[in-house]
Design a protein that fits this description.
The termini are far apart. It is built from six helices and seven strands, in the order E-H-E-H-E-H-E-H-E-H-E-H-E. The protein is globular and about 40 Å long. The chain has 169 residues and is an alpha/beta fold. Strands 1-2-3-4-5-6-7 form a seven-stranded parallel β-sheet.
């Protein structure tokens, strides 16, 4: 039986939070850039993300960036420029929702993860996303442990990311 390791992945609203997450044991951090992400309100510059990558990589931690909004045609050149910049600073992956970004990310040589905005709830959708080149799929937040297990059993080679919700009893 193939054993998989778990990755403790923390959100970071900015450079300081990302560094703190790594200092406190996170294996990886996801962060939003200035544009084109559901986390863009944080407004992190590429320079800040580069600093976070440099810091994280010293400790073997990974940095993933959200570029997970739907991209309009007039935004395509700016999005491509952002993805190219993220590739140059060696982010470990980009979370996307818009399937039009797959080729752009592939050309830039950046690993792609299917964002939770893809609303992935079935094993069939995970398989389809994997067939498109997604290395990891972030499942819908509302799935039960039983549903997640079923998806995993049907797609054992796909990295799945799930949100842990603390249960109050």
């Amino acid at each position: 039986m193939l054993m998989r390791s778990l990755e403790l992945l923390a959100p970071a609203k900015n450079l300081e939070c990302g560094i703190a997450a790594i200092d406190h044991g996170a294996d990886a951090v996801y962060i939003g850039a200035e544009h084109f992400g559901a986390r863009q309100a944080a407004g992190n510059s590429v320079d800040d993300i580069a600093q976070l990558c440099s810091y994280a990589h010293q400790f073997g931690a990974k940095i993933y960036v959200t570029v997970n909004t739907i991209i309009y045609e007039q935004e395509l050149n700016d999005t491509q420029r952002l993805i190219d910049q993220l590739a140059q600073i060696h982010v470990d992956g980009i979370l996307i929702q818009d399937m039009g970004l797959i080729d752009i990310c592939n050309r830039a040589g950046v690993e792609i993860h299917a964002s939770t905005q893809c609303d992935t709830r079935t094993a069939e959708k995970v398989n389809w996303l994997y067939s498109l080149g997604f290395k990891r799929v972030v499942l819908a937040r509302e799935l039960s442990a039983e549903e997640i297990n079923k998806i995993h059993k049907n797609n054992p080679d796909v990295e799945l990311e799930v949100f842990f919700m603390e249960l109050c009893v």
